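tool=predict chain=A
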Amino acid sequence: MTTVTARALIRTEAASGGRTRLETLRSDPPLTLRQTGPRRVHLVSTGAGPLRGDHLELGVDVAPGTSLEVRSVSATLVLPGLADTPSAMVVRARVGAGATLHFSPEPTVLAAGCAHRLVVRLSLAEDATVFWREEIVFGRHGERPGRGHARFDATVAGRPLLRQDLLVGEDAVDGSPAVYGDARCVGSTLLAGPAWAPPAVPDVKRERRAVLGDGWAALPLAGPGVQVCALGADAVQLRERLRRGEEAAAVSPPAAERAASAPDTRQATTSRAETGRRAP
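tool=predict ok
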């Protein structure tokens, strides 16, 4: 069976007047890139899958002093295929000095029978800023998920900031009340940069602490960052919980604690059309 190997690249450069220019936008189907704003790129899937055996790579290079936003047009549906080896999606991102990257694609859906690896290698300069969100849906509606292994590695100036592994589709993990319980989706967001750096001099008032909400947690890291983790019954609930955690992580520590304890008065819409979007 024929498998697909594709490598796409986004590279920015600084332009006059403090502007950001897309120096390189190289697509390699099914990884197709479209510029949708001065500093925004959308990933458009121009083929089915990935299927077992496919190997896709996306490189993101944000030059010093520039900013970039990367999104996707739709969810990624990972399919079984006939190859013996898992499919793989590898994202390698470098964010230069004073640069900003916002990376928030739509969810990855692990269809029944698939085997998939999602690997992120994120390298930040000392004063770079990053917002990085990942969402995984456990199969299409009414089916068990395929197997997935998500690995996330982030460093700041060469120092480890976050190392994370997520396994989906393993009986010992999926059904455990200590891991996913009855959730159908899992997600996380990394907010990193100087704004989240621990105080140089210990200060109880400025020290960030873990903030817990309904189905989400904002966890301060040892370095300049906060990780938000969430579970959800569906993709809509997962996104709402991640946003609650992101809001808590983005404000000062005392305000974050007040926000977590306040009741959520916003209306969460879980219409049939929306839930159908996550489960093609």
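The chain has four helices and 18 strands. The first helix runs from residue 171 to 174.
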